[in-house]
Amino acid sequence: MVKFLLKLLGFLSLGLSISNAAQSQNISPIATDLNLNQELVESSPVLRRWLADPPDVLYDIYNSPSFNTKLKIGLTSRDNSLGFEIGVDDVFLGKTAFTVSAGYQREFTGKENNFDANLRYYVLPLGSYFNISPQVGYRSIDIASLGNTSGIDVGVQGILVLSPHSADLRLSQTFTAPGSNNEASITTLAASYAITRKLRLGSNIQWRRSNIRYDSRVGFVLELAL
Q1: Is the CB of residue 141 less than 8 Å from the CB of residue 127?
Q2: What is the DSSP letter of 97?
Q3: Which of 10, 80, 94, 212 sits between 20 and 30 A of 148, alpha carbons compared?
Q4: Per-residue pLDDT tens for 25-69?
Q5: Inter-residue contact 42 to 28 (CB < 8 Å)
Q6: What are phi and psi of 144, to 5 degrees?
């Protein structure tokens, strides 16, 4: 039994040696072409893996987003009236450049509530540090004693990725019920910064202009990257 185990270990060792030798033979010509020191290649598992199977950087740039899908919850203030907001940003539809976002905001006094949902399409490669996305969706703004503005919501968003999956700035401009008497124009500037791999701190400021009301709102949110 002992002799059998020794022979088995010998065969396994021989197989590993052959495998490592074959891998070295595959890597060596590439390392030579790149003028890489062989000792450096042998001492770096990551470098050996990249030389044996080079990553497709161009594919990653076009298909791997530099920003995350995020869940968010936070506090808002509009004209000294506190409220809360919850929402989700950029839920990707499969492996496409289309995303779905939605949000709900309400003042604690009940004087106003706001709901919006939209579909975005990112024009540039998803791995870019800058991107732009036309968007279309629905928004409802309900203000006590002043009425309701609701309907189709169209606009555009620009995103600047300061650090992939860690920090970004977003600027958007939308128009709710365009062409109607209650048309509302909303400009939003938002910033987000990662404090851990999953958690982020975010802030935003929003300017709203319409025949019903002209005001601004600030918000501070806690975000969970998905």
Answers
A1: no
A2: S
A3: 80
A4: 455 565 555 566 667 667 777 667 766 766 666 666 667 899 999
A5: no
A6: -60, 135
Q: Are residues 76 and 48 in the same domain?
A: no
Number of domains within the chain = 2
Neighbours of 179 (CB within 10 A): 8
Sequence-separated (6 or more) residues with CB below 8 Å from residue 21: none
Burial class of residue 108 (count of CB atoms within 10 Å of its CB; 0-12, 13-18, 19+): exposed
pTM of the model as a whole: 0.76
Greatest alpha-carbon pair distance for the chain in Å reads 93
Residues in the chain: 226
Residue 41 is assigned to a structural domain of this protein: yes
Token pair, residue 209, equals 């202009």
